[in-house]
Structures are given as C-alpha cells and as structure tokens.
C-alpha cells in the first residue's frame, strides 16, 4: 500500500501556521500508566508485546515506546500496515518506508509513553543484534553514497516511451483500421505500454522518483489512475502491507488467495488436516493457467456489460488481447520472486532476514531489467523500498556480501527458472495438501 506511513499526508495548518486538531493524537494516545504525558515511564519487551491487539496497540521505534491505538485509525498508510507491528520493534520498517524519518518523528512525539528499560536489548524476539547493526551500517553507506537519489531524466524518458507507445497504437487504429494483423500489432504495443506503466506507477507509489512526497503522489495518481485505470489508494493500502510483512499469512494480502490456492509448505498441510477442499488443490498448478484466462474473460464481461453489446465494435478487440497479454506479463513477473519462497505465519524476524526469506532475484540483463521494471532486483527493492530502481544493481553486491557474512541465503535465478519455479511451487503445495487430506 493510504500512502507511505506518516509523511504521505502533509499536516493541515491552521491560522498562524499551527497544526489543526486533525494532526493531533486522539485522547488516550501518548498517555502513560500514570495518566501523564511526556514518556517518562520505562517498559520491558514483555510489557510491550502484550499490547498487540486491535484495541490496544503499542510499538517501539529506536527504543522509544509509542501508544498508536487511536492514531492507527487515522494513519495515512492505512490502519493495517502500522498495526502489523503492534507489540513489536518497528524501527527498521519505519526507516525503510519514509523518505525523511526525522520529519515524521515530530508527529510521533505526542504518542510517546516511555522507553525501553536500560536492561532491555534494542531488538525484540531474540533477533540477531549484530546483523541488525550491520544492515543499518549498510543503509548509512547507501544514503551517504547517494543511492537513494533518483535521476529525473531516467524516469522522464521512461514515461515518454510509455506515452509514445500508447499514441502510436491508437494512431495506427485510427488511421488504418482494425484488421487482425494490425489488431495484433497494436495489442502488443498497448500491452507493453500498460505493463511498463504498471512498473512506473510502482516507482512513484514508493516515493522513489521525486524529492518531495507530494510530487510522487500526484504522478502516481496520474499514471495509475489515468494510464492504468486503477486506484492509487487501493494499491498503496495493499502493497505496503506486502512490503511490511512479505509472505506472512494474514498480513500480506498478496498471498491471500481466497481459498483458490494453497501456498507454501504449511498452509497446504493445515488445510489438509482440517479436510478443507474448496478447490482440487492437487491440480492447482494446472488451473493456475486457467485463472489467467478467467481474469481476462472477467474484464471482457465488464466491458460488454458496462456498454450495450451492439456498441462493442472491432476497434475494441485490441483492448481484450491487451488485457490477456498484460495479465500474464504482470503475474509472472510479480510471482516468480515471491511464490516459490518461504511462506509462514508471523515469525518476528529482523528486516533483512524477513525480506530475504520471502524474495529472490532474477539475473540481470538489459532485457530482464526492462521486462520486469527492474523488479528482477526484488531483494534490493524490498530492503530499500524508496530506492530508485536504476541503483539496484549498485547496491546488490553490498547486499550479497552482507548476506554471505551472516549466512542468509541470497537467491538469484534465470528468468526461465523463475517462471518454472512458480508452477513447481504450486504443484508441490498441492501434493502436500493431498497427502495431508488423505492420510492425516
């Protein structure tokens, strides 16, 4: 996903430059057990971890304890993404998601209720303190070397080639009509422009292009709303949950398959033991392909039911072919880096370990970079979500070295293996379900 955490909404100012009530915490936030504000109390991790419920949420950032129970409801990124860290240390996620964490911290001051006791470690849940410190050192190096700064020309040319493809396709149809050969050519052009627009809106949505959040939001809404016909708020609300807790059941909406698929190694067994059979899951690697056709058919039905059938003309054919092609393009690129990876319930891992267990890379090449919108560097993107994509290849060797130092697997696959692993993963999960369904 609602845009990124707190900095995505500028505080509304009243007369004289004062913040209005909407930017102040609601009654009950920032109040310690003694009923006073000021955050002078000290807490243990055990005490913090008890406040992890929807109606009672605390979290820790840089050893400071914050009561976000009421604030979470007004959180610009949505209540869910911040609530996923209730009762936990959210320091690494807080830094990763914000362009200017220091700017955001001033909004946290009224929510402060105390800090961790001096005897408490800085990391919760037994996380590796050395690994966390080493990753922070890497982030400091990334910032000092300017790898979080974008090159405006790169993204301007990228937007330009999308608009050019759109204009050429529509122009060809306008001038030369809708023969099948021209339909196929224009469908390929439109599918390419739409897929690339999807990667570009992803850049703007992550605030990785412009220095100011506001310009990122405006351009994000233009690309996803006017070029893609989708909602920026909907995308942000879902996508940042995915980044916050990738491949974590009940927290990552991208792996909520609505009982159509069973994913990973644990969910299939859980379904099998409970004798849940919403679908013939042992065939899911086969109906996965059918689901893409149904998705295109759904778009076709929407098109012809939103206008009368007699108004559906041959000029609409490229749109249907485009939907089919783009649907497959999008699904294969996005799933090959996540679907074959580990999926589990919440394990409270540090940022590096959590992201690496849920992501893998596809090897670099000029084609792979363009085809995937540089999401072949999925690992680097997940570790540094606000980093402009043209810098992923620069930080990748540093990330790999850090992973080797701490024994964290860093996976890189060919494009072909990435795609075939999607099908293999679905088949493996289906077989696990069938075994548990029949024998456990």
TrEMBL record:
<dbReference type="Pfam" id="PF00173">
    <property type="entry name" value="Cyt-b5"/>
</dbReference>
<feature type="region of interest" description="Disordered">
    <location>
        <begin position="1"/>
        <end position="39"/>
    </location>
</feature>
<dbReference type="InterPro" id="IPR012171">
    <property type="entry name" value="Fatty_acid_desaturase"/>
</dbReference>
<keyword id="KW-0472">Membrane</keyword>
<keyword id="KW-0812">Transmembrane</keyword>
<keyword id="KW-0275">Fatty acid biosynthesis</keyword>
<comment type="similarity">
    <text>Belongs to the fatty acid desaturase type 1 family.</text>
</comment>
<dbReference type="GO" id="GO:0006636">
    <property type="term" value="P:unsaturated fatty acid biosynthetic process"/>
</dbReference>
<feature type="domain" description="Cytochrome b5 heme-binding">
    <location>
        <begin position="40"/>
        <end position="117"/>
    </location>
</feature>
<comment type="pathway">
    <text>Lipid metabolism; polyunsaturated fatty acid biosynthesis.</text>
</comment>
<keyword id="KW-0444">Lipid biosynthesis</keyword>
<dbReference type="GO" id="GO:0016020">
    <property type="term" value="C:membrane"/>
</dbReference>
<keyword id="KW-0276">Fatty acid metabolism</keyword>
<keyword id="KW-0443">Lipid metabolism</keyword>
<protein>
    <recommendedName>
        <fullName>Cytochrome b5 heme-binding domain-containing protein</fullName>
    </recommendedName>
</protein>
<dbReference type="Pfam" id="PF00487">
    <property type="entry name" value="FA_desaturase"/>
</dbReference>
<keyword id="KW-0560">Oxidoreductase</keyword>
<dbReference type="GO" id="GO:0016717">
    <property type="term" value="F:oxidoreductase activity, acting on paired donors, with oxidation of a pair of donors resulting in the reduction of molecular oxygen to two molecules of water"/>
</dbReference>
<dbReference type="InterPro" id="IPR036400">
    <property type="entry name" value="Cyt_B5-like_heme/steroid_sf"/>
</dbReference>
<keyword id="KW-1133">Transmembrane helix</keyword>
<dbReference type="InterPro" id="IPR001199">
    <property type="entry name" value="Cyt_B5-like_heme/steroid-bd"/>
</dbReference>
<feature type="transmembrane region" description="Helical">
    <location>
        <begin position="153"/>
        <end position="176"/>
    </location>
</feature>
<dbReference type="InterPro" id="IPR005804">
    <property type="entry name" value="FA_desaturase_dom"/>
</dbReference>
């Amino acid at each position: 996903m609602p845009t990124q955490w707190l900095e995505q909404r500028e505080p509304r100012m009243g007369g004289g430059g004062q913040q209005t009530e909407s930017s102040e915490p609601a009654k009950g936030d920032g109040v310690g057990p003694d009923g006073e504000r000021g955050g002078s109390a000290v807490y243990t991790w055990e005490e913090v971890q008890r406040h992890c419920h929807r109606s009672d949420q605390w979290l820790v950032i840089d050893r400071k304890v914050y009561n976000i129970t009421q604030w979470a409801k007004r959180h610009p990124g949505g209540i869910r993404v911040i609530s996923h860290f209730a009762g936990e240390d959210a320091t690494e996620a807080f830094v990763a998601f914000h362009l200017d964490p220091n700017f955001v911290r001033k909004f946290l001051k009224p929510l402060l209720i105390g800090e961790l006791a001096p005897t408490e470690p800085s990391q919760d849940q037994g996380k590796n303190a050395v690994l966390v410190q080493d990753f922070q050192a890497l982030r400091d190096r990334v910032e000092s070397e300017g790898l979080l700064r974008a090159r405006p020309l790169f993204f301007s040319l990228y937007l330009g080639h999308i608009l050019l493809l759109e204009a050429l396709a529509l122009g060809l149809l306008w001038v030369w009509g809708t023969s099948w050969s021209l339909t196929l050519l224009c469908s390929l052009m439109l599918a390419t422009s739409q897929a690339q627009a999807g990667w570009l809106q992803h850049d703007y949505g992550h605030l990785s292009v412009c220095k100011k959040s506001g310009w990122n939001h405006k351009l994000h809404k233009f690309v996803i709303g006017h070029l893609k016909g989708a909602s920026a708020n909907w995308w942000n609300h879902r996508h940042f949950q995915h980044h916050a807790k990738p491949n974590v059941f009940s927290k990552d909406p991208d792996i909520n398959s609505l009982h159509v698929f069973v994913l990973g190694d644990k969910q299939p067994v859980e379904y099998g033991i409970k004798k849940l059979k919403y679908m013939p899951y042992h065939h899911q690697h086969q109906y996965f392909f059918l689901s893409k056709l149904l998705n295109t058919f759904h778009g076709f039905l929407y098109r012809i039911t939103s206008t009368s059938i007699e108004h559906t003309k041959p000029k609409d054919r490229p749109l249907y072919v485009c939907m089919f092609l783009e649907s497959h393009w999008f699904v294969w690129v996005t799933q090959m880096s996540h679907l074959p990876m580990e999926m589990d319930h919440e394990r409270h891992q540090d940022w590096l370990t959590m992201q690496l267990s849920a992501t893998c890379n596809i090897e670099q090449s000029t084609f792979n970079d363009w085809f995937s919108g540089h999401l072949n560097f999925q690992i680097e993107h997940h570790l540094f979500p606000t980093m402009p994509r043209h810098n992923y290849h620069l930080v990748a060797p540093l990330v790999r070295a850090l992973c080797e130092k701490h024994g964290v697997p860093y996976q890189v696959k060919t494009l072909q293996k990435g795609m075939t692993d999607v099908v293999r993963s679905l088949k493996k999960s289906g077989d696990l379900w069938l075994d548990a369904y029949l024998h456990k």
